[in-house]
Design brief:
Layout: H1 4-28, H2 32-55, H3 60-95, H4 98-115, H5 122-174, H6 179-217, H7 223-233, H8 242-254, H9 258-286, H10 292-306, H11 310-334
Helix pairs in contact: 2-3, 2-5, 2-6, 3-5, 6-7, 6-9, 6-11, 7-8, 8-9, 10-11
């Protein structure tokens, strides 16, 4: 039975950890994207780090620098190019709004011709022009924040690669599970992060490429730009790529290109949307088989909490919630013996390492 003094020390230490942890988390919130990006890329590169330092005998510092260069070339450069392309287009509109006004006037004329409703009103034009400065400020802040988070990502990733196994062992010891269940939890995290970090960009590239082919086929103006936007739209739950190709089909229809509009709409439904199902089917066979509901609701939760990185960490958060519920059920309700714990007179058997559900909602 711990004494009053020991209880005071224990609870005071817990309160101090929670208080300081809250302050640290709040202050690091602007760099949350960089921290999560570093964790994601570390999960993807940890296997290569182990092979370089173990099988090939590289020094950890040299291996970390090599993998840091790989991360820059394979991950950061493509993302930076996409961000630059969209930012450059938006900046051009904010600095020279005449092009936007001309496009809006043309759209209003088409709508009035087809429907009789006049969009080109002074109040609508004032509202459109008043939003341009806010859009420019948001763009500048977003680009600056992205650059800062890239620096944070590289800095943190380097030390994560150096820490490697010791960092993972330390985290496993802190988890409120037995050794077997803790290892299973870390394996679950690695599988989900790897699945989303590879699957989401792959799905975006495939759907963007398929949509780009359709834009070229049906004569959509500036097809490369809209193809890039289609790639980015794949992260939005439920609507996804339809957020891009549906307005483009309407634009073609208002412009008098009825055949191209109907063709693009049919192409979007039959080809662009179905390519999502094909890619997901392939990924489920090769990576973590995450239930679609966990993916959809996880992305909804993640985008509001973490921004763009919520595409990866939202489903992880929801999956870990389901995993912990399953752990509680197996350990304390079903009370199965834990095969991962040592047996013997000095180590009584504990509940088992939870296995993932075997039905359609399995997490592995």
């Amino acid at each position: 039975m711990p004494s009053v003094r020991e209880q005071y020390w224990r609870y005071s230490l817990v309160a101090l950890i929670v208080g300081l942890g809250t302050v640290v988390f709040v202050e690091l919130t602007p760099f949350l994207g960089g921290l999560m990006g570093a964790a994601t890329i570390y999960v993807l590169l940890r296997g290569q780090m182990c092979r370089l330092t173990g099988r090939h005998g590289w020094r950890r510092g040299a291996a970390a620098w090599l993998l840091l260069g790989e991360a820059v070339c394979c991950f950061l450069v493509p993302i930076s190019l996409l961000v630059w392309m969209v930012a450059e287009r938006v900046q051009r509109l904010t600095l020279d709004p005449r092009q936007l006004v001309a496009s809006a006037r043309h759209l209003a004329a088409l709508v009035q011709e087809r429907t009789g409703y006049d969009l080109w009103q002074e109040s609508n034009l004032r509202s459109l022009l008043s939003e341009l400065p806010h859009l420019g400020q948001w763009l500048l802040g977003g680009v600056t924040g992205f650059a800062v988070n890239v620096v944070v990502l590289l800095f943190v990733l380097y030390f994560m690669l150096l820490g490697g196994r010791r960092m993972e062992e330390y985290i496993r010891e802190l988890l409120p599970f037995s050794r077997g269940v803790g290892s299973d939890a870390l394996h679950e995290v690695r599988m989900i992060v790897r699945s989303n970090a590879i699957g989401v960009p792959l799905l975006a590239v495939v759907q963007g490429g398929v949509a780009l082919a359709g834009y070229l086929l049906f004569g959509v103006p500036d097809p490369l730009f809209w193809g890039v936007l289609t790639c980015l739209a794949t992260i939005i739950p439920v609507v996804g790529t339809a957020l891009i190709w549906v307005p483009l089909a309407l634009w073609l229809g208002l412009g008098g290109h009825t055949g191209a509009a109907v063709g693009l709409a049919a192409y979007g439904v039959a080809v662009v949307t179905q390519s999502d199902n094909v890619v997901r089917l392939v990924l489920q066979r090769r990576m973590a088989d995450i239930h679609p509901l966990i993916t959809v609701f996880g992305v909804v939760i993640g985008l509001s909490l973490f921004g763009f990185m919520g595409v990866i960490f939202g489903p992880l958060l929801l999956s870990m919630f389901v995993f912990c519920v399953h752990v509680f059920k197996r350990l304390y309700l079903d009370r199965h013996p834990d095969a991962g714990e040592p047996s013997g007179p000095s180590a009584p058997s504990a509940p088992s390492v939870p296995s993932a559900p075997t039905d359609g909602g399995r997490l592995h």
